[in-house]
Every structure is written in C-alpha cells, then in structure tokens.
Amino acid sequence: QIHSELEEAAAASGASWWETFKRVTLPLLRPGIVAGWIYIFIVSFREFSTSVLLATGESRVLSILLFTMFEQGQVTVVAAIGILMILTLLTIVAVFYKLSGRVGIQT
Q1: Where are the domains of the chain?
Q2: pTM above 0.85, yes or no
Q3: Contact 105/35 with Cβ under 8 angstroms?
C-alpha cells in the first residue's frame, strides 16, 4: 500500500497530479508491475491447453508444433527446441531481474 502522505507531501510541494503520479506513485508501483509481468510471461509459456483450444489451421503455435513433433517421434528435435525455450525464458527473466534492481525491487 502506498501511503497517502507521500502524495500529500508532493501536492504541498506544488507538484501537479501528473507530476505526483510520475515521480511518486509510478516508481512505487513499478516493482509490482514488473514482477507481475514476469509471472504472467512465464505462466503463458507453459500454457498448452489454451493453445490447443484457440489454435486454428492457419496459426502455428510453438507448443502445438512441439506436441505434433513429439507424437511423430521426433523426440530429439522436441528436446532441442525445449532447451532453447528454457534458455530464452531464463535470459528474459535474467534481464528483468537485472533491470528490477534499477527500479527498486529488493531481493
């Protein structure tokens, strides 16, 4: 929770609503927004059932492609693509973890 005293102090100092939001409220909200985005990104990568339900014949979703390849016996290709997916996720999370140090997330 953000204390209202911080916004009141900004208003007492002559800051406008936008200036208060930009310099006080947003920096305090940013760590939660970044953490929520990382969580949603990771969960969306592993969501297979939604892809199966929403995919059409024209769309090529990676999870369905991997499942089809697995059913066809191309296990080594599926394993290689799975490792690339994991490395991509780890890289993106590491970048956001590094950036989160700049916006005030404490680990």
Answers
A1: 4-103
A2: no
A3: yes
Structural tokens at position 40: 């949603």
3-class secondary structure, 63? helix
DSSP string, 9-54: HHHHTT--HHHHIIIIIHHHHHHHHHHHHHHHHHHHHT-HHHHHHH
Task: For residue 43, give the 3-state DSSP assignment.
Answer: helix
Q: Please answer whether residues 99 and 34 qualify as being in contact, where contact means their C-beta atoms are separated by less than 8 angstroms.
A: yes
Q: What is the pLDDT of residues 38-96, one digit of tens each?
A: 888 777 777 767 777 777 777 777 777 888 899 999 999 999 988 998 898 889 888 87
- Structure tokens that stand for 68 in this block: 């089809």
